Amino acid sequence: MRLIHLAPLAAAAIVAACQPAGGGLTKSGLDPEKFKSEAGGKPTALYTLSNQNGMEACITNYGGRIVSLMVPGSDGELRDVVLGFDSIQAYFPENNQTDFCASIGRYANRIDHGRLPIDGDTVQLPVNNFGHCLHGGPTGWQYQVYDAAQPDDTTLVLTMHSPDGDNNFPGNVTATVTYTLRSDNSLAIDYSATTDAPTVINMTNHAYFCLSGDPERTVADDVLQINAATYTPVDSTYMTTGEILPVAGTPMDFTTPKPVGRDYALFDFKQVRNGNGFDHNWVLATEGDITLPAAVLTSPESGVTLIVYTTEPGIQFYSGNFLDGTIRGKRGKTYVQHAGLCLETQHYPDSPNKPEWPSTMLRPGETYESHTIFAFSNN
């Protein structure tokens, strides 16, 4: 399997102001004043990271969401390559119940019918998606406020203190998400968590990437490669069946680069039909080696390439199937179906109910750690 490799990643550099000079707009056109609010009794804000190459990442502590990510294309111009909104109010669930670019917890993806086995007992979690518990439940961490600390111009540390019983998950959990914008134009995300009682943890980032920088286009022409020879099929409720099947000879095969849109409407294939497109977990062949590319995505329009590196065993590729043109995002742009796609590094969905799969159990005295790098370049 041929995959593109990058040079070893450089250390983070401290090079630019944490906030826009003079309190003005960010490079992506965001007004930080529109992100000052309160949710759950805690203040929200917008934090700006930048590097010496002019790349910029804007992140809010509400849900730990990447709001904008400015990346240079092949023409040298900066493009915002993620979907999102211009104000914090637009992220509140009463206005738009989306997971745009959020730091997901406690458990990314689905748990079957919300049934969580813990040491012989079954904890009933709330169900919020086709009868299953999705992304930590209806008030998962994407709808909560992280405590934020910005130690330097390239780093943001977000901390979540999740009490025992948060969406009925057991244990008091302290989790951190550290964003680092590196001098090689990569955004590193480091996750950690501890607990005082047995629980499960599976954290990810739910970025919707639009590498062309134009969300009124689709990602159909973007070229994707996934370093995985197998995947976990799903039923009609998007729940994993417990099988691990080969991708060879099916539309699920991204072992060599192909356009995202080539097969996402092949509903004659049951898995594409069940996922309403691509919405599946691929079993990575990287075996947790963060120096090996897990996925490579390129926009022919902008020349931007994204390489995903991770310590996680799986990656959920979601082709933006449920975007339907009813959401208006940044700059008033309408987000059509397939306006963006997700590459969520993770343990497999419903792992607590499938003991043969890599475990997501976290016990007192242990530390959960997960590392992902979104590395950007241009042709």
Task: Tell me about this structure.
This protein is mainly β. The chain has two domains: 201 residues, Beta-galactosidase, Chain A, domain 5 (Distorted Sandwich); 136 residues, Beta-galactosidase, Chain A, domain 5. The protein is 1% helix and 34% strand. The protein has one helix and 28 strands. Strands 12-13-14-15-28-24-23-18-21 form a nine-stranded antiparallel sheet, with no helix packed on it. The chain has a five-stranded antiparallel sheet with strand order 20-19-22-25-26, with no helix packed on it. A hairpin with a 5-residue loop joins strand 23 and strand 24. The longest helix has 5 residues. It is globular, with a radius of gyration of 19 Å. The chain starts with 36 loop residues before the first strand and ends with a strand.
Kindly summarize this structure in a few lines:
The chain is mainly β and 379 residues long. It has one helix at residues 270-274; strands at 37-39, 42-44, 46-50, 56-60, 65-72, 78-80, 103-104, 110-111, 115-118, 121-124, 133-134, 147-152, 155-162, 173-181, 186-195, 199-200, 204-205, 223-226, 230-232, 245-246, 258-259, 279-283, 293-298, 304-310, 314-318, 342-346, 361-362, 368-378.
Radius of gyration: 19 Å
Which ranges are low-confidence, i.e. pLDDT below 50, for 5 or more consecutive residues? 1-18
The secondary-structure class comes to mainly beta
H/E order of the elements? EEEEEEEEEEEEEEEEEEEEEHEEEEEEE
Give the end-to-end Cα distance, rounded to a whole number of Å.
21 Å
The coarse overall form would be: globular
Reported CATH architecture of the largest domain = Distorted Sandwich
> What is the percentage of strand-forming residues?
25-35%
Give the tally of structural domains. 2
Annotation field: number of helices: 1
